[in-house]
Write a structure and sequence with these properties.
Number of strands: 4
Helix content: 40-55%
Structural class: alpha/beta
Largest sheet: 4 strands, parallel
Strand order of the largest sheet: 1-2-4-3
Strand content: 5-15%
Order of helices and strands: EHHEHEHEHH
Number of helices: 6
Length: 142
Amino acid sequence: AMGADHAGFSLKEKLRQQLARDGHEVLDFGTDSELSCDYPDFAQPVARQVAQGRSDRGILVCSTGIGMAMAANKVDGIRAAAAQSDDEVKFTREHNDANVLTLGARYLDENRALELIHIFLNTEFAGGRHARRVAKIAQLEK
């Protein structure tokens, strides 16, 4: 599941097209232009799609990735992480079982974003002691 606001639209489109060419089923929740819009309107449906198990993972793009992460993390069961480095993406999957990756179009070009997405989609959760910690996240008060 993918989504973006106006700042992330162009990058999302390039990523969506490449992921589809690579054989991934991509559900696009918008936006569909560079007209100004509000990132929570796109973060929420992607997050719900993932939280309800209808999509394995979510990818959200805005200017920095931070706003999208904040909005997506309001949905129960979502562990969204804004990341820009290989290690951040790898460890947020291995240690935190992140199910939504948020990217900043201001900082990443298409090739770099695709590298990070590849890590995100191909890194498994390590479980073990990390599973106990992730379970505690789900128990935190809202």
